[in-house]
What we know:
CATH 2.40.50.140, single-stranded DNA binding, DNA recombination, DNA replication, DNA repair, DNA damage
Amino acid sequence: MSVNKVILVGRLGRDPETRYMPSGDAVTNFSIATDEQWRDRNGERQTRTEWHNITLFGKLGEIASQYLRKGSQVYIEGRIQSRKYSGKDGIERTAYDIIGNEMKMLGSRNDAASAGGGYDQAGGGADYAQGGNNYSQGGYDAAPAASSPPPAAPRRQAPRPAPTPAPVDDIDDDIPF
């Protein structure tokens, strides 16, 4: 058994680009940046940014194209797929793409505008509590309406007590062997 699963939270480095296959299905591409931060031996903060190419198909790609912009914070879940190509210098290279099957828009609606339209580390980490709309390849929750207020945070319910089983008088009589 093997698993090919990727989960990324990052900001778009460019607006999504959508094209349509002959079948009419949408294919949307964009890149997102993720950061890794640590302190070096001298105590200075170091940051490494990784860029990931994302591809979304069908309705999921159409939703991304409609609602995401450069600077938007997004959660992507999918799989890694490699492809080989020849560079301008004739050398064969390998590119790795993320084929997304789930997307969650994170942050506020004004995130892209407040981030200056670009990738901005000062925007902070992922804020899962603000994540509004969840979209997946199989379907999606209601798309956000421009005038509707954000949904209320889910409430925690007290756990229900487990039902108590009825007492059993003589358990040996019911065993079939």
